[in-house]
Amino acid sequence: MKLKKLSLEQKNRYYGLYFILPWFAGFCFLFLTPLLSSLRFSLSNLQVNDEGFTLKYIGLANFREALFSHESYVRTLTESVMNIVLNTPLILIFSLFFAVLLNQKFHGRVLARAIFFLPVILASGIIASIENGDLMQSVVRSASDSTGGGLSVIKNLELTTLLIESGLSPTVVQYLTGAVSRIYEIVSQSGVQILIFLAGLQSISPSLYEAAKIEGSTGYEAFWKITFPMIGPLILTNLVYTIIDSFISDQTSRMVVDTAFKSFNFGLSAAMSWMYFAIIALLLWVTTALISRKVFYQD
Amino acid sequence: MKTETAAMPHRSKKEQLNRLASAAYWVEFSKKWLWVIARFVLVFGISFVILYPILLKLSIAFKSMDDLYDSTVIWVPQAFTLENFRLVFKAMNYPAVLRNTMLLSSAVMVLQTIICVLAGYGFARIKFKGSGLLFAAVIFTILVPSQTIMIPLYLHFKNFDLFGLIELFTGKPANLINTYWPFIISSMLGMGVKTGLYVYIFRQFFKGIPREIEEAAYVDGAGYFTTFARVILPNAIPSMVTVMLFSFVWQWNDSFFTNMYLNEPKVMSSMMSSAGYGIATYMTGGGQAANSLVQDPFFMSMMMNTSVLMAILPLIILYVFVQRHFVESVERSGLVG
């Protein structure tokens, strides 16, 4: 009876609910329930047996164990968070820079774009983790270094001394040269970000640049006064994406998985991941709150 | 026709010479070319950084045992050999793994796209008290790392039951670990790899489609679901292509869920992580002579490189064909608002 009173438009609004239904079922059964039970597991001692598992409530003991008696959790956690804090600005600047570069017209642009988006399909944690400890690759690398006159080793040292002599503080220099040595890591994490920035750049109306050019602005000014504000919302999107993407395959996540499936300490693992999640959430909240105040929205 | 050419000033020879003599011209000229060179160096350099691991793997994969210990061989092997590929092909049961991965990724891709396009449309159009909260839930699923819900999910699929129905018929809950059902079920219910992101993409896209289009369809007598199928969906094809590309690739590369749900290396990503072990068992099964090879770290590393290369090779081949659509579809998908 009540439905009769609604207008067509109002009814259609509720029809939308049918579309969400499958997703909502998944959200309840495969997300919300696991999330709550994960919280419960983190507060208990979980024993797996033949008929499933038994839980014994032990309070905050798991959290205490992770923080105070686990041999490497705190160290790994700080390292992971530091990595995120250090890499995220680099990835954002790098991807914006190269998106601007790839947006210009030059010969071989199609090829360059194709290569730059390769990390989107190749950058999965497993390939990277295999690559890190690979013997053969390091042999070839060192061999080509020695035949090439050890260029790659010297280059970084020279850069460091040059920068320090020019009066920069050693911390900044370390950060920059560290970025140069980690270039592959940064490149392989910024595929999607470049893609998003590039799409954003192409949606900026060319008439803005035209007007600016007539008014006599240089390319540099046009970047800071037009490109940068227009792409602001996407910087925020990419920031969030970079942060949540980086915890998929880092040290702490690996430790969480290992604790669960190698040492079968499910409660400890749940506690570890909850603390990690809390820190990431805090980080995300702070950064988005800081940046979204500066972001310019056109409408 | 082209009228722009008429606007170009025709300079006389003298004017041109004057122009060449001015300093400003040369400053502009050198500025332009310096930028072109700098850009070339940057793009080339980073392209090299990206391609370097693949080239390295290619070089290693074609090497023979003799080349491994030949110090004059660095990049180009002296004796090209396909022996490594043949070995990995057999040891990893490559055709079966490839077929499994293809089927799994395609199934997940189709299911995820369907569910997410429905959910995205729903989220773009519903408007009542609490609908904002519902969409916040989508964002929340993106933000929570999968490690947090990994253990309950694992136990859930290990003792899978649908309101006690399965236990009623078979006497005990079904164990879905080491089957493909966890992937199918979670993508069917929109909780697969990065599904929240796809819902977000579709929602942004459908927000950009004016309501007038739908209203016109209603006036013409189409119902709600007809309108969606006949009017809205055809418009959404670019963003569907984006989501399909991403979900295929990410499912292919996903090692987290595959390692969790599958005990045996049935698909590419879990094959890669256990390649060393697989090859070692295959080789030692072959006889005593192979044993010394397995203990040789260089040899094992060569095998690892070859198997990683073979795992990503199908993706790269697919990528060559669809890479054009990557940027184009992201542009048109409304991901960027």
From TrEMBL, chain A:
Compartment list: Cell membrane
CDD domains associated with the record: TM_PBP2 (cd06261)
TM stretches of this protein: 12-36, 84-103, 110-130, 183-201, 222-244, 264-286
Transmembrane helix keyword on record: yes
SUPFAM superfamilies with a match to the protein in the record: MetI-like (SSF161098)
Keyword Membrane: yes
The organism's place on the tree of life at top rank: Bacteria
Residue ranges annotated for the ABC transmembrane type-1 domain, each copy included: 77-295
Keywords: Cell membrane, Membrane, Sugar transport, Transmembrane, Transmembrane helix, Transport
Family per record: Belongs to the binding-protein-dependent transport system permease family.
This protein's name: ABC-type sugar transport system permease subunit
Automatic annotation (TrEMBL), chain B:
Keyword entries, A-Z: Cell membrane, Membrane, Sugar transport, Transmembrane, Transmembrane helix, Transport
Transmembrane parts of this sequence: 33-56, 101-121, 133-155, 180-201, 232-252, 298-322
Domain ABC transmembrane type-1: from-to ranges: 98-321
CDD domains: TM_PBP2 (cd06261)
Cell membrane keyword on record: yes
Compartments in which it is found: Cell membrane
Pfam families registered for this protein in UniProt: BPD_transp_1
Mode of membrane association: Multi-pass membrane protein
Family of the protein in this entry: Belongs to the binding-protein-dependent transport system permease family.
Annotated protein name in UniProt: Multiple sugar transport system permease protein
